[in-house]
Specification:
Blueprint (H helix, E strand, L loop, with lengths): L1 E2 L18 E6 H11 L12 H17 L3 E5 L8 H5 L12 H16 L4 E2 L6 H13 L4 E5 L13 E5 L4 E3 L1 H8 L6 H8 L14 H11 L2 H6 L7 H9 L1 H11 L21 H10 L6 H4 L6 E10 L5 E9 L2 E9 L4 H14 L6 E6 L2 H16 L12 H13 L1 E6 L7 H32 L30 H4 L1
Parallel strand pairs: 1-10, 2-3, 2-5, 3-4, 5-6, 8-11, 11-12
Antiparallel strand pairs: 6-7, 8-9, 9-10
Helix pairs in contact: 1-2, 2-4, 7-8, 7-11, 14-16
C-alpha cells in the first residue's frame, strides 16, 4: 500500500515533504517466537495451528501502516548449529529448547505469507540474523539511509548510531544512542564489552563469574573497555572479583567475541531490491482464506476503483479531552489524519472524525464512510432526512451537536456517500488503527496543553511555580450503539 499521492488529480490530502529514505530491517525469528507465545489456541477449523502466522502477520501489517518504510526486509536466523559462534563455543545457546512442533508447522506458511506480501527474506549461512542486520544497517546508514531495526533484542543495541535506531513494536519504544546509555551506562560501541564481562544467560554466554551487568557497566565506564579491565584488574575492588578476572580472562574475551555482532557478512543485497512493493493479491487472498484470516483481507485489499474509503473513530469521555483518527484509502494510496479537542464528548469526536475525513477530499467523490458509531451512521443514513424534513436541522437548539450535523449535511451534498457501521474493537484492522490514532492524539494534545500551562504559570509567577493538582474525571458509561431502537434518533440519550 502506497502512502500519499501528490499528483494534481489525487483525492487525498498532500504530504510531500522530502525526507531521507527509510529502511526497516525486521528481526524475523525474534518476532515469530514472540507471536507464537503471545497468542495461544488459534487454529483453523481443521486443527492447523495458526497463532504464530496470525500474530506475525498482524505485526507486519501494523508496521507497514504506522511506519510506512520505503525499504523493508525480514531477516531470519539459520539453525544455531550452523553458526560460527557454535563452532567457537559449542555451548552457545545450548540452554534453549528445540523449536516447538506447533511452530515448526507454521514456518512454511510464514514464508509463504512474506512471499505473498512481496517482502524480501534474508539469511546468511554461518551467521545469525543479528550479523546480517548489523552488516546491512551500517552499509546503508553510511549512504544516508535512515535505518530502523525492528527488534526486542538488547544485543542489537551495540549497532545503534545517529543513523541507526531500534524499534520494539511490542512496547512501542524506539531506542537511539541516549536510550542505550540509559540502559547500559555506556555508548553503543561498548555494549559488547559489558556483555563480555557480565555474560548473557539468554544466549548462554558465560562472562566472568560474580560480575553482573551493573558491575560490568561500572568497570567498563571506569577503564574504557573489557581489555583494559583485564589489564588493570589489580585496581578492581574485591579480592574475589580480581581472582575471577584473573582466572577467567580468556572466557571473558571469548564472551565478548560471542556477544559482538559482525559487520562483514558477504551478502549481495542492493537497496533497490528491498524497496516496498504492493502485495501479490492473487496469492495473498487465497492464502488468507486458507488460514481462515478473512478479516485481514480488508487491510490488504484496495477499495473498488473510483471509490474513496474513509475509516473514522473518535475517543473521549465526559466533557473531554477527545481525539479523532481517520484513515483515507483510494486505490493503492492511504492517508492518516488525527486531532485533539480539549473539550468534547465521545459523540462529538465521532462526528468530528467523519467531518475531517470528508473535508480532506479535494473534489466530489464516491465515498464509503466506515465507523463503529451508530450515532454517526444512523444519524446520516436514517435520521438526517427526517431532521431536514421537519426543519430540526436549522431550528436553533433542536438537536444536540447541531453545528456538527449541519457540517455533515453540507459535506454529504458534495459527495456520493454510503455510511457503513463496523463493530468496534473486534479485530477490525482499520477501526483499531483509527482508535490508536485518536488515543495518541489525546495523549499528544494533553502533553502539549500541560507544557503550555506550565509555561504560562511560570511566566505569570516567576520563581513561584504552583503545584498542579491531579484532575480525576470519573468515566462516563457509553451506551453500546446496538441498543438504539429503530424509531429513536439518539438525541436525548447520548448527548
Amino acid at each position: 500500500m502506497k502512502t500519499d499521492d501528490c499528483s494534481e488529480t489525487a483525492p487525498l490530502p498532500e504530504a510531500c515533504a522530502k525526507t531521507a529514505p527509510q529502511l526497516y530491517l525486521l528481526d524475523g525469528s525474534s518476532y515469530i517466537y514472540r507471536a507464537f507465545f503471545g497468542i495461544r489456541d488459534l487454529a483453523t477449523a481443521a486443527g492447523m495451528p495458526t497463532n504464530a502466522i496470525y500474530g506475525f502477520t498482524r505485526m507486519l501489517l501494523g508496521l507497514l501502516q504506522e511506519n510506512r518504510p520505503d525499504y523493508l526486509a525480514v531477516v531470519l536466523d539459520r539453525p544455531r548449529e550452523e553458526t560460527f559462534r557454535r563452532e567457537l563455543y559449542p555451548d552457545y545457546k545450548a540452554n534453549r529448547d528445540a523449536m516447538p512442533a506447533d511452530l515448526q508447522l507454521q514456518f512454511p506458511y510464514i514464508k509463504q505469507m512474506l512471499q505473498a506480501l512481496n517482502i524480501p527474506v534474508l539469511e546468511a549461512p554461518g551467521f545469525e540474523a543479528d550479523d546480517v542486520i548489523a552488516t546491512l544497517a551500517r552499509r546503508y546508514a553510511a549512504q544516508g539511509v535512515e535505518v530502523t531495526v525492528v527488534t526486542g533484542d538488547k544485543d542489537l543495541m551495540q549497532i545503534v548510531s545517529d543513523g541507526i535506531s531500534l524499534l520494539d513494536t511490542m512496547k512501542d519504544k524506539r531506542t537511539g544512542p541516549q536510550e542505550v546509555m540509559e540502559r547500559f551506562g555506556v555508548p553503543p560501541e561498548l555494549v559488547a564489552d559489558v556483555l563480555g564481562l557480565s555474560g548473557d544467560t539468554s544466549d548462554n554466554i558465560p562472562g566472568i563469574p560474580g560480575i553482573g551487568e551493573k558491575t560490568a557497566s561500572e568497570l567498563v565506564q571506569r577503564f574504557g573497555s573489557l581489555e583494559s579491565v583485564l589489564e588493570w584488574k589489580n585496581l578492581v575492588s574485591g579480592k574475589k572479583r580480581r581472582d575471577n578476572l584473573q582466572a577467567h580472562a580468556d572466557q571473558a574475551r571469548l564472551s565478548k567475541v560471542l556477544a559482538t555482532v559482525r559487520y562483514d557478512v558477504d551478502l549481495e543485497v542492493s537497496l533497490s531490491s528491498l524497496q516496498r512493493q504492493t502485495p501479490d493479491l492473487a496469492v495473498l487472498i487465497p492464502l488468507l482464506r486458507e488460514l481462515e484470516f478473512e478479516g485481514l483481507e480488508i487491510a490488504f485489499t484496495p477499495p473498488p476503483p473510483g471509490v474513496v474509503e474513509i475509516y473514522s473513530d473518535g475517543s473521549g469521555r465526559d466533557s473531554g479531552p477527545g481525539g479523532y483518527g481517520v484513515v483515507l484509502r483510494h486505490g493503492e494510496h492511504e492517508k492518516e489524519l488525527s486531532g485533539f479537542e480539549p473539550v468534547a464528548t465521545s459523540q462529538r469526536m465521532e462526528l468530528i472524525a467523519a467531518i475531517r475525513g470528508l473535508e480532506a477530499l479535494k473534489s466530489s467523490r464516491t465515498v464509503r464512510v466506515f465507523s463503529d458509531s451508530q450515532y454517526l451512521v444512523r444519524g446520516m443514513s436514517e435520521w438526517m432526512s427526517g431532521w431536514i424534513r421537519n426543519n430540526r436541522l436549522e431550528t436553533p437548539d433542536a438537536l444536540a451537536n447541531q453545528d456538527l450535523w449541519q457540517q455533515l449535511a453540507a459535506l454529504a451534498q458534495q459527495h456520493r456517500i454510503d455510511w457503513e457501521w463496523v463493530r468496534g474493537h473486534a479485530g477490525h484492522p482499520f477501526n483499531e488503527r483509527c482508535d490508536r490514532l485518536a488515543k495518541r492524539a489525546v495523549e499528544t494534545g494533553l502533553q502539549a496543553s500541560q507544557a503550555t500551562s506550565d509555561a504560562e504559570t511560570l511566566a505569570a509567577e516567576p520563581g513561584c511555580p504552583l503545584p498542579l493538582a491531579a484532575i480525576e474525571r470519573p468515566p462516563v458509561p457509553i451506551r453500546d450503539s446496538s441498543e438504539f431502537e429503530s424509531d429513536e434518533d439518539g438525541q436525548l440519550r447520548l448527548c
